[in-house]
C-alpha cells in the first residue's frame, strides 16, 4: 500500500470504520492510521484477524481499539460506542463500510436490516460522540447507487435495493448533519476486484467479473478503492455529497 494521506495530517483524530477487519474496511482503517488517526477496528465474528490488524496499526504509533459488534443488535452497538467513548472520548470520522446480504443462512430481511436499519442505528449511536468538523462516509456500489435506472444481476438485486435504501435514509439526515457541522459523503464504486461480494457474484454467475472488466476497461482493486474512501473522509464534501469511483458510463439515467 502506498501513502495516500499526508503523514500526521490526522494526528489526534479518532476514526471508526465498520467492518474493518478485512477487505476495503481494513485497508481504509490502515490508511487513516498511517495518517496519524487513532482508530477503531470493528468486526462481527473474526476477532483474531481484527486483533492482528490492530497490532500492526499500533506499530505506526497510533492507538487501535478492537471492537466486536453485531450492528443489527442495539445492545451490541451501544456497548461498542460506550467503549469508544471511554477510550477516546469521542469520534471525528465515521466510515459506514460494513454491509452484506449475500451470506447463506440469514433471514429474508437481513439485507435490509444490515444495509439500511443498522446504518442509521450506527449513525444515531455515534452522533453523541461527534462534534462540529466531524465526517461521515457511507460506502456503496454503483450497482446499488444506480439501481433505479440500471438493473443489476438478479443474484445481487435484493442487496442492491437494500443498500440504496440505506443510502436514501442516510441522505435524509444531511440537513441535520449539516446543522451540526458534520460532513457527509457517499462513496460509490464499480465492482471491486478481490472483495467478498465480487467473489460471491462470480461464483453465482461465472464470468461476471471478466464481463464487467471488459465493459469498464478496468476495475479498481481493494486497496485502490479503500484509498478513495479514506480520501473522502478528509477531502471537501462534494456539492451532491457523492464521490463516484470507477466507470459510470454503463450506468445510465439518474442515481
Write a short abstract of this structure.
The protein has 255 residues and is of the alpha/beta class.
Please explain how this structure is put together.
The structure is a single chain. By secondary structure, this protein is an alpha/beta fold. It has helices at 23-34, 47-58, 74-88, 110-126, 142-145, 157-171, 174-180, 196-204, 208-216, 222-232, and strands at residues 14-17, 38-43, 64-68, 91-96, 130-141, 183-189, 242-245. Strands 3-2-1-4-5-6-7 form a seven-stranded parallel beta sheet, with helices on both faces. Helix 1 (23-34) packs across helix 10, helix 3 (74-88) packs parallel to helix 4 (110-126) and helix 4 (110-126) packs parallel to helix 6 (157-171). It is globular. The two termini are 31 Å apart.
Order of helices and strands: EHEHEHEHEHHHEHHHE
Beta strand % = 15-25%
Distance from N terminus to C terminus (CA atoms, Å) equals 31 Å
Helix-and-strand structural type:
alpha/beta
Compute the number of helices. Answer: 10
Number of strands: 7
Q: Numbering strands along the chain, what is their spatial order in the largest sheet?
A: 3-2-1-4-5-6-7
The major β-sheet equals: 7 strands, parallel
Low-confidence stretches: none
Mean pLDDT equals 89
Nearest-angstrom radius of gyration? Answer: 17 Å
Q: How would you describe the oligomerization state of the chains in this entry?
A: single chain
Helical proportion?
Answer: 40-55%
Shape: globular
Amino acid at each position: 500500500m502506498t501513502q495516500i494521506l499526508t503523514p500526521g495530517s490526522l494526528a489526534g483524530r479518532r476514526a471508526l470504520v465498520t467492518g474493518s477487519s478485512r477487505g476495503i474496511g481494513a485497508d481504509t482503517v490502515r490508511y487513516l492510521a498511517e495518517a496519524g488517526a487513532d482508530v477503531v477496528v470493528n468486526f462481527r465474528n473474526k476477532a483474531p484477524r481484527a486483533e492482528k490488524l490492530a497490532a500492526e496499526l499500533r506499530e505506526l504509533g497510533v492507538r487501535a481499539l478492537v471492537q466486536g459488534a453485531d450492528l443489527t443488535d442495539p445492545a451490541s452497538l451501544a456497548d461498542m460506542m460506550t467503549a469508544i467513548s471511554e477510550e477516546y472520548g469521542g469520534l471525528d470520522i465515521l466510515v459506514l463500510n460494513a454491509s452484506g446480504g449475500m451470506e447463506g443462512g440469514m433471514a429474508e430481511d437481513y439485507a435490509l436490516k444490515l444495509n439500511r436499519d443498522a446504518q442509521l442505528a450506527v449513525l444515531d449511536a455515534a452522533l453523541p460522540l461527534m462534534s462540529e468538523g466531524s465526517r461521515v462516509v457511507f460506502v456503496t456500489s454503483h450497482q446499488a447507487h444506480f439501481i433505479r435506472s440500471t438493473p443489476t444481476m438478479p443474484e445481487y438485486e435484493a442487496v442492491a435495493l437494500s443498500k440504496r435504501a440505506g443510502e436514501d435514509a442516510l441522505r435524509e439526515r444531511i440537513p441535520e448533519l449539516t446543522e451540526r457541522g458534520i460532513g457527509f459523503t457517499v462513496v460509490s464504486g464499480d465492482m471491486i476486484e478481490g472483495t467478498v461480494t465480487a467473489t460471491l457474484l462470480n461464483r453465482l454467475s461465472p464470468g461476471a467479473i471478466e464481463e464487467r472488466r471488459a465493459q469498464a476497461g478496468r476495475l479498481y482493486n481493494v486497496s485502490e478503492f479503500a484509498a478513495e474512501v479514506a480520501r473522502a473522509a478528509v477531502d471537501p464534501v462534494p456539492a451532491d455529497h457523492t464521490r463516484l469511483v470507477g466507470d459510470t458510463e454503463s450506468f445510465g439515467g439518474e442515481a
